[in-house]
Design a protein that fits this description.
Elements (H helix, E strand, L loop, with lengths): L2 E10 L6 H19 L3 E9 L3 H9 L4 H18 L6 E4 L3 H16 L3 E11 L4 E3 L17 E10 L5 H10 L4 E2 L1 H12 L6 E2 L1 E3 L8 E2 L2 E6 L1 H6 L1 H4 L7 H6 L3 E6 L3 H14 L7 E5 L2 E3 L2 E2 L10 H8 L1 H11 L6 E3 L1 H31 L11 H22 L3 H22 L1 H6 L3 H21 L5 H10 L11 H4 L32 H16 L12 H5 L3 E11 L7 E6 L6 E5 L7 H4 L3 E5 L5 E3 L2 E3 L2 E2 L1 E3 L4 E3 L11 E2 L1
Parallel strand pairs: 1-2, 1-12, 2-3, 7-13, 12-13, 14-16
Antiparallel strand pairs: 4-5, 4-6, 6-8, 9-11, 10-11, 14-15, 17-18, 17-20, 17-26, 18-19, 20-23, 21-22, 24-25
Helix pairs in contact: 2-3, 11-12, 12-13, 13-15, 13-17, 14-15, 14-17, 15-17, 17-18
The chain binds 5'-O-[(L-methionyl)-sulphamoyl]adenosine.
């Protein structure tokens, strides 16, 4: 069986988790899930990096001992991942005994083989980076990252003969074009290796200066340099050297990091492995930064994005989808709530949500909610099936290459294609003309493709995918899926299975109102608006309106494709109306006292189509449904015979 081992960086515990950490871990989770669906055995590792100066300083600042401090923040990271539906197989902490043992074991091996020596070293030490800088590397005498003047330190330390492996590493990278990917980072590393002699790596810190670290097995007065310690976590978790996991998964090791830690992963780590007699990892996969208004997120700039807040506001599915869709893997991407809302509304609510809502509701209307049996295939069916095959092939190929944005873009060819397929095949006309066999085929083609889409989306939006499949009457078990086969296999959706009435998995959202910049002013505005609202209505003229006034109204007929009760107001219904536009409109209607959602589904209604959209109890309403209130209740205005959705009332 093929295997896949995916790791995230182990995060420093001197800061709380933010969007950047969430991104890497969500990508790792999506990859683990994708590879599971591709019938591979997977192992997904994340954890925390808990030694070094930085941690000691952070603990001191918080008035805690290092151990107390790391326990607290590590637990915070650990607790975050299930909330983001990240299902790691192990969680490693560098303060665990198992890790201390592995680091000491490897240090001893490298020491015994003669690749570690004791020497004097003087250099500019930056506490923020926990490393020495050479004169050449400083910018105006300052650390390029922290913009602080490093301290000149001269002391005796242990060194790893990294320079010895420069030529080997260069050759390995050249011989294995996808050892480091995407290519820009491979080129960056090759040019680093070309730019001069690789220096040996100082791998110890005297205990006189730092005790919070792993003691060197061959000198009790020193602890291990935090990077030499941290990188080894990837082996510890596999029970190196004798564990089954190590034998099975190390040959399939995929590290996932952002560009900030390219050098330790692309240069220190492979040379360390070589010196310890261990095969190099399979791939190093490097992504860019999430920027906020073109700047890197940082605590000091106060622009740190908290992943849980976003998840709570927009839902986990939208959040995960956005992260994978928006960033081109390898390049930087800008984070903004506007962009997230844009994607949610366009890709999820309009394209995907609409497809589900329309199709489920038509299946109920035309086939009593049961999957119909398809009959003969026509040209439109063959065409959409071909679009589907291409979309799935692209999705799988791109996902395997870590090109998530292109993968999703590819899959959306099918989502949009299916919405068009509905317009072209016009199921409502087929029904009207009594072409029930053709109608059955059309609905089946839609439902089977929707099943395929839902399965493919499991790595990205596990929760939504499982819900979509449940709506299609399927109890999803990832172990039974073979994604590669989905491209060509047709007809796994069984006929006669009962499906859900409505979907509404991705309701449209609006950006939260910006905080008013001047609260006095806004209070004044609110007061005057309230006064206006309460004032008695002025009767203008003789009560007649001009014809031009009537012409201002855009009244249209639409077909109700989905109805549910407003989540925050049980007298209101959220009615999805197909108006012949690209997407159905949502109208919030005060009809819940008179109609059950099922009574309205499939009905044609008259809608004031150009009423200014507004929000009613946080839900967007894009029009008004016309109805007549009588003593007995409420009657909807509806055409005598079914008309094409979007027809104008004049
Ligand atoms: N402890 C080291 C890693 C040791 S791995 C053997 C470390 N920790 S860190 O907490 O600083 O995490 C860095 C990683 O967090 C990045 O490589 C990336 O995965 C993620 N990100 C942090 N900020 C990020 C962005 N602004 N954008 C994208 N990812 C970011 O370095």
């Amino acid at each position: 069986m093929e295997r896949f081992y995916i790791t995230t960086p182990i995060y420093y515990v001197n800061a709380r988790p933010h969007l950047g950490h969430a991104y890497t871990t969500i990508v790792a989770d999506a990859l683990a899930r994708f590879n599971k669906l591709m019938a591979k055995e997977t192992f997904f590792l994340t954890g925390t990096d808990e030694h070094g100066d930085k941690i000691v300083q952070a603990a001191e600042k918080n008035g805690m001992s290092p151990q107390e401090y790391v326990d607290g923040i590590s637990a915070e990271f650990q607790a975050l991942w299930p909330d983001l539906m990240c299902e790691n197989d192990d969680y490693i902490r560098t303060t665990q005994d198992r890790h201390v043992r592995t680091v000491q074991d490897i240090l001893q091996k490298v020491y015994d083989s003669g690749d570690i020596y004791f020497g004097e070293y003087g250099g500019h030490y930056c506490y923020g980076c926990e490393r020495f800088y050479t004169e050449k590397e400083l910018e105006d005498g300052k650390c390029p990252d922290h913009q602080t003047v490093p301290e000149y330190i001269s002391e005796k330390n242990y060194f790893f003969k990294m320079s010895k492996y420069q030529d080997w590493l260069k050759e390995h990278i050249q011989k294995n074009p996808d050892f480091i990917r995407p290519e820009r980072y491979r080129n960056e590393v090759l040019s680093l290796l070309d730019s001069g002699a690789l220096e040996d790596l100082c791998i110890s810190r005297p205990k006189s200066r730092l005790t919070w670290g792993i003691e060197l097995p061959f000198d009790k007065d020193y602890v291990t340099y935090v990077w030499f310690d941290a990188l080894i976590n990837y082996l510890t978790a596999l029970n190196y050297p004798d564990g089954e996991l190590y034998k099975d998964f190390w040959p399939a090791a995929n590290h996932l990091v952002a560009k900030d830690i390219l050098k330790p992963h692309a240069i220190f780590w492979p040379t360390m492995l070589k010196a310890a007699g261990i095969e190099p990892y399979q791939h190093l996969n490097v992504h860019g930064y999430w920027l906020v208004k073109d700047t890197k997120m940082s605590k000091s700039l106060g622009n740190v994005i908290e992943p849980l807040k976003l998840k709570d506001t927009y839902g986990l599915n939208a959040f995960r989808y956005f992260l994978l869709r928006e960033m081109s893997f390898g390049q930087d991407a800008s984070f903004s709530e506007e962009a997230l809302v844009g994607r949610l509304n366009a890709d999820l609510a309009n394209d995907l949500g609409n497809l589900f809502n329309r199709t489920l509701s038509m299946t109920h209307k035309y086939f009593e909610g049961k999957v119909p049996s398809p009959v003969d295939e026509e040209i439109e069916d063959a065409e959409i099936k071909q679009i589907g095959r291409e979309a799935m092939k692209t999705y799988q190929a791109m996902f395997s290459e870590f090109k998530f944005s292109r993968a999703l873009e590819g899959l959306w060819e099918l989502v949009r294609g299916l919405n068009k397929y509905i317009d072209i095949t016009a199921p409502w006309t087929l029904k009207k003309n009594g072409e029930m066999e053709r109608l059955a085929t059309v609905i089946y083609v839609l439902l089977e493709n929707m099943r395929k889409i839902a399965v493919h989306l499991w790595p990205v939006m596990p929760e939504a995918s499982e819900n979509m499949l449940q709506q299609l009457g399927i109890c999803f078990d990832p172990r039974k899926v073979d994604l590669a086969k989905e491209v060509d296999v047709w007809g796994l959706l069984e006929s006669d299975v009962e499906i859900a009435k409505t979907s509404n998995l991705f309701p449209r959202v609006e950006l939260p109102e910006p905080e008013p910049s001047n609260s006095m002013e806004s209070a004044k505005e609110k007061k005057s608006a309230k006064a206006k609202k309460n004032a008695p209505k002025q009767q203008e003229g003789n009560g007649f309106i001009e014809f031009e006034d009537f012409q201002k109204l855009d009244l249209r007929v639409g077909t109700v494709t989905g109805v549910e009760v407003h989540p925050d107001a049980d007298r209101l219904l959220l009615v999805q109306v197909d108006m012949g536009e690209d997407e159905p409109r949502q109208v919030v209607a005060g009809l819940a006292d008179f109609f059950a959602p099922d009574d309205l589904n499939g009905k044609q209604v008259v809608v004031v189509a150009n009423l200014k959209p507004r929000k009613l109890r946080k839900q967007l309403s894009q029009g008004m449904i016309l109805a007549v209130k009588t003593e007995e209740g409420m009657q909807l205005l509806t055409p005598m015979d079914e008309v094409v959705p979007g027809s104008k009332v004049s």
